[in-house]
Design a protein that fits this description.
Helix content is 54%, strand content 4%. By secondary structure, it is mostly helical. α1 crosses α2 and α2 crosses α4.
């Protein structure tokens, strides 16, 4: 599996934790409504286990879906982001095209 260019992988300490740690992170993201929180939940939805108990990953992704859908404002913003694209990079900066903001 190639490394993620954005650093979203287990090699990055920010993306490690127990199931309870990850559930707390999702709770925080859903409540805060910051652009990077929307991106983080979107990244969780793309989670694909590569080793170990795959049911654990499935339970976690379902939890993240359920929490996001239980918060109407968050779900609306996430839906809008998915249809319009995300102007932010994984690190919170603006995505540039040919060195310029589109």
């Amino acid at each position: 599996v190639p490394y993620c260019k954005g650093g979203v992988m287990a090699a990055n300490a920010a993306f490690r934790g127990s199931l309870s740690t990850w559930k707390r992170r999702v709770e925080d993201w859903v409540r805060r409504l910051r652009p990077e929180d929307l991106l983080n939940v979107d990244i969780v939805y793309d989670l694909r286990p590569v080793h170990g108990d795959t049911t654990l990953a499935a339970q976690f992704v379902k939890y993240a879906y359920d929490r996001a859908h239980a918060e109407p404002v968050f779900a609306k913003l996430l839906g809008e982001q998915m249809t319009t694209g995300n102007p932010f990079t994984v690190f919170g900066g603006f995505q540039l095209e040919n060195g310029r903001l589109d």
